[in-house]
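Figure caption, in words: inputs first, then the predicted bound structure.
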Amino acid sequence: MFYELAAPSWGPEEIEAAKRVIDSGFYTMGANVKAFEQEFAAYFGARHAIMVNSGSSANLVAVAAMAYRQTRPLQRGDEVIVPALSWATTYHPLQQYGLKLRFVDIELETLNIDVRQLEQALTPRTRAIVAVSILGNPAPLDQIRAFADAHDLLLLEDNCESMDAELNGRKCGTFGDLNSFSFFFSHHISTMEGGMILTDDREFEDLCRCLRAHGWTRDLPPDSSLYTRTGSDHFEAYRFILPGYNVRPLEIEAAIGREQLKKLPAMTAQRRQNWALFQSLFAGDERFILQRENGQSSAFSFTVILNPACRPDRPRVFAALKEAEIGFRIITGGNFLRHDVLRHYDYEVVGGSTPQADLAHDYGFFVGNHPHDLTPQITRLREVLDRVCR
Ligand SMILES: Cc1ncc(COP(=O)(O)O)c(C=O)c1O
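Bound structure (pyridoxal-5'-phosphate present):
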């Protein structure tokens, strides 16, 4: 393949780190996870970081934490505002906790939630909102945060696609009460599988640590507000207080993550350099609708929406991309309302339809961005699209 959708970002440092863990003989959650959590929290200026085995698990544990907090927990039947376009596991934990989703359309240009529709999405049962920054491009997180505060809503920021992006000098993934990250292959940093939750709230931190590991008290500090210790060490060693999961990360993942985090600023800079080239080659061409940057994107990938006004032939475009060995795919998960799984959901569509998410679904695709120079690849992409979109 000439231009891959995803590329490895490891060097010898990651391999050495993995080997050190193997040599140590200690593989399950331990010193590397603890150190990675501290380093990750420091990088983002957050108080607490809790590592899990994927971004999906980060969302699951975050939603569970909202459902088990002591004051005003999320309850079955409560409503959550979500954007129509995101990844499946942005939504599934909400369904699994009995919540009703209120889908809001996106803005075609940014691919993020259309905040002008937030007031309309609100009902007396609305208790939370999920903010997602699509493919590196910050959602209007400041406005979403203000809206959440004004209406006493919990905010989960699913930042699995936008690590290192910034809005007004503040990192994405720090606007929510709980914030999730993914370290899956092809993401801004990769630990094979892996994820992280950031929070500034001590109760949420304890809930996440407990829910991550069996609902066990093992990883909680002695002064945790979640429970009161008995005098029996025998019982306390195996004490379960919440219906939790086992979504613990591995030492090897954390050791690799620590190396990747050191490289993150340079990798983001290279991604942004590629992004600048992509913009310079495609901007101003009315045949293509590009993702408009809001704040500072960390450029996960490059989206192209074929302008419906130019009556594009998307199957022909796809055939030409395949022939040129350029990888492409649906934008994130497309319009989530178009998926069969919706029959298991309790939901409503704000305003009755999501025309912009439909356009992204029907006319859009993305190609990869990698943390190395993609000048030949992006140049060929431009040639192919220019030729096939006449
Ligand atoms: C917005 C969003 N949320 C959650 C996830 C899930 O992350 P993971 O693949 O690590 O489970 C992804 C995956 O790409 C994503 O794009």
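Residues 54-56, 59, 86-87, 89-90, 132, 158, 160-161, 182, 184, 195, 332 surround pyridoxal-5'-phosphate (CB under 6 Å).
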